[in-house]
Each structure stands twice: as structure tokens, then as C-alpha cells.
Amino acid sequence: MTLTKQKIGFQHVGSFLRPNGLKQARKAYEDGFFTQKDLTEIEDEAIKDLIIKEKEVGLKYVTDGEFRRSYWHLDFFWGFEGVEHIHYGEGYHFAHEETRDDTARLSGKISFNPITHPFIRDFDFVKSVADSVGGVLPKQTIPAPSQLYIELIRGENLKTVNEFYPNHQDLLDDIVSAYHDAIIALYDEGARVIQLDDCSWGLFLDDAFLKTEDGQAYLNSGIQDTLLALNNGAIRGLPDDLTINTHVCRGNYHSDFAFSGGYAPVAETLFAKENVNSYFLEYDSKRAGGFEPLAKVSGDKNVVLGLLTTKSGKLENRQDIIDRVNEASQYIPLDRLWLSTQCGFASTEEGNILTEEQQWKKLKLVKSIIDEIWGP
């Protein structure tokens, strides 16, 4: 039997709390006291330090902690040709907070340019540090194609979609093409594990929303098939040695959440038909529902159980986590399961409400439980 750890390896979902020095540098840059060069130098040093700490905690795959981003998703969207950064006038509404009001809106036709998209340069730096440190591999996280689509058709943003894409299928085709080109560019720079972060399925999970008139319209719109086609289209025909995983989240902002509900409403589409290697799934609270939908995960795809929360610094009970892994193995074999935190520690630059010391303790606990269940 091939152990799951040989396919996945110990890895964190993605983001880490920004160090205070980095936060201060970004503020100085925004206030006009630092140049972009000044900020980049401080980001570089923070990322080098982070990667060393990631190795020390036992991670096989390392990220830059998303230290250069303000948001987990929008910064990537803004890097495409034909997408602009604007202020929407209203943030995303989470359970207890409203976020900042940035969004991505069309300014033309969507395309990818490897020279102007910053994530290519950002990955080059991570890979160079990982190569220098040794014993770790770089991992790139990007928002899923479906997430870009959801952002572009959000409220007033839809007006520019209709302006530039009177034929809606052309929009879908250009998103697929731009993403495929971006993934290939990352591969050409040495990326071998790319993770598609995806909150676009969250609305289908939220019982309170689905009971509303808008929720029923959304549920019956056929948009699940559109989201699936976007994601599968973007990852079709990639090199055999490139692993594509996805992380499905219910929102992660300043320790708050956006959606609640189990995975059953999307299992037949997302779990059965999306052509990824592994699903990183949020399972840190009762809001996530039970493990029964995991039975719909098709083929030999893996599931990484996000059983430890990043929304709180309180350390979970070790045996409780082990028991939940065993419970999940009733629906999908243990050799196709793995363990992680439920999300990153700072999906936006604000970060969640815990300390850096607590975030590393969480990861140490994840690693020790992995070693106990699947072997070191």
C-alpha cells in the first residue's frame, strides 16, 4: 500500500501571521515613507525567516506565508491583464464582521502575462530560498478559477462583464485560458505542487442562505456545473509530475467565518468530478457537518482533514483529533486521508486572533499526530 504521506507530505494550507515588522513596513509603504524596493527587501527577509521556521517544524512543502499579499485571492486576480483593483463600497459580510471593500473588476479581456504578473517572480524567490535551505520543496497557493468568476459577477461587477463579454461563454473560456497559462508558467519556474484555494462552493453549504429566495435561485441556477467546468478546464492537460490540490473553505477573516453547513450539497459535483489530487477540507467545527459526504470522493483522490482550527490559539486535544480521523476513515480509507489545519492563519493581512507562538504549536501538533497515525 502506498501511504498517503508519500503523495501529500506534511504541508500547511498556506498563510501565516504577518510579523509586526512586516506590517509596519507595509504601513510605511502605503503612507509614502518606504519605496517598493524598501518593502520588497523587508518582505524577502521575512519570507527567508519563515521558510527556515517551516522547515524546523517539519513541513515538507513550504510557502511564503502569502506575506506579499493583502488578500488570499484578490492580489492574484489583480495580476491578470484585463482585471483592475477597485473599491466596491462594501466589504464581504462575514458572520460577525465586514471586511475591507476591495474587489476585482474587469477593465478589458482577461489574459495572463508572465512578465507583469507578480506571482511568477514571487514563486521564483520562494523556490530559491527553499533550494538554499534544502530539505523542503516550494508550494504555490492561488485562488481557484471559480473564485475569480464569482468575484467578477458579484453585484455591480457584473456590468463590466456584460460590457466586455456579451457572449458569457467567452468569459469562461478566457478565465480557463488565463489560469492554464499561469499554472504552466509556475510549472516552468519549478512549481510541482499548486493549491487552488476555493470559497466559491460555500454558498451551497449554508442552510440559512439556501432557504432564502436568492439562495434557492442560486441553488437551482446550474452554477455548480460552471464552477466545475472552470476548475477542470484550467487544470486539463497539465504535466504528469504537477500535483494540483484544492482547499475548500467557508471563509477565514480575522477569526471569523462566512458560511456554515456540511459538504453534502456539493459532494456529487466537487468531490465526485473535480480532477484534483487532494481536497484540503475544513472540519474544525460543527459548522462543517459530518464526514458522510467523503464517501463521494471519487477514484483514488485524497482528503486532508482540516481538524485543527486556525481561528483560535487554543490547542486541540490530541486524542479527540485522532478519534475524528478514525471516524472519517469509515467513509474513505485511512491511506487516502491526511491531516492539516482547517485554513491558513492569515487569509488576509489582518490575520486571525492568535499569536505566532500558538500557530507554530498548532503545526507541531499536526505533525506529531501525522507521525503517530501514518508513521514518521
TrEMBL record:
One of its GO terms (biological process) is methionine biosynthetic process. It comes from the Bacteria. Signal peptide: none annotated. One of its GO terms (molecular function) is zinc ion binding. Residues 169-349 form the Cobalamin-independent methionine synthase MetE C-terminal/archaeal domain. Pfam families: Meth_synt_2. This is Methionine synthase II (Cobalamin-independent). The lineage of its organism: Bacteria, Bacillati, Bacillota, Bacilli, Lactobacillales.
